Request: fold
Amino acid sequence: MNVGQLSPDTFRTLLATSGLRIKTGPFNLSIQTRLPHLIDQLHQMYAHYALMDAVEIAEFHVRIVAKRSIRRPLARLIRFEIDGRSPFPPVPAEQALATLEWGFNLAIAVRINHLLLFHSAAVERNGHVLLLPAWPGSGKTTLSAMLMHRGYRLFSDEFGLMDPQSGDFFPLPRLMPLKNQSIEIIRDYLPEAVLGPEIPGTLKGTVAHVRPPLASIERSDEPAKARWIVFPKWSEGTALRLEPLPQSEAFLLLASNAFNYEVLGEAAFDAVTGLIRGCECRKLVYSDFDSALKALDALTDD
Amino acid sequence: MRLIPSVAELAGKKFKKKYIFLPGMYWLSNIDLSSLKIENWDGEYTVFQPESGKTHFLNEMGLKILLILDQSPITLEALCQELSEYFTLSPASSFSGQIAKILLRYESLGLVASVTENT
Reply:
């Protein structure tokens, strides 16, 4: 059963009481909140997620609660909690959805060490994963939002989740936070994309989330191995370049922006070595989606 | 030979330079080279050091330094001579300074150590 099949009343009751328990890729998440606007947003944006079976255990328990401030008595603030702890200071209530998503990301990055966590978008085409590792601000979320509406299956816009033993990558299709001018770019290029509300004033400016397509979420229990690693960089007015990247450089870039490379030690070294040896490595500079899509389609064609 | 204080432990660059060029100072490997995991990427190397859990990125000369030091202790001057011959480099005044910097870096990583002759 999916979230979207719950009646609004049942959905609200679950969030307000025992928690809404959903599957997100390899992780199970329990969410509690009583904030009316967040409940409405989640009902739309989380509609495709499957509910957990009653016997399953949730790895993450998060709550978004209203917070009163003596210093700012008129301000409507909220607090993100994970297992009763608050990693962030309170933020305006309008930022509840963005804070929930970032908080869950933080929890994954801090707690998950049985998988190697690359800071990377990941999509799948023709049965293999295309990794798009990049530093924040390189446009990987915008690029993967475009790709997932053009025949690629979304794994994640934030994490490349790799089993260091098998080399399998696991999908984690979650809401994708577009920032600032990327919001209008995606609205124009992908009118079919489902976007959440625009949330101004966050640490990263104005944010609006893209909902992953149903097809990506329904197949989120299907891992795949990587075959291509492309380091993307959006650069205004630049002609498209898709060039080979030396494997040593790819190793350096991939390992240095993994969340837990040093924690996993030798297993991570072996995993990255095997990954790089088995993949074609490229760097992509682009300024428009059409040419980027054409180049990536050619790269990932069978 | 006796061990002298680690160069990396000495504060300030002045001390480092003084000790690098100390007469009778030898450099040697501080690790079991066979314990390292070394991957060759067309002449560049990723090296995993199990003892520290660190990964190092070396070029061919960086790896050659470790290999030479693994054979026997060697002075900076002799090391530079051997590297110059191996890589057929023409003499340059800055070369020994560059190698000295690499040795200091390796020492801070626990890959090499310096000793001096007990005269």
In short: Chain A has a mean pLDDT of 95. The longest helix of chain A spans residues 96-111. The two ends of chain A are 35 Å apart (CA to CA). Residues 137 and 233 of chain A are 9 Å apart (CA to CA).
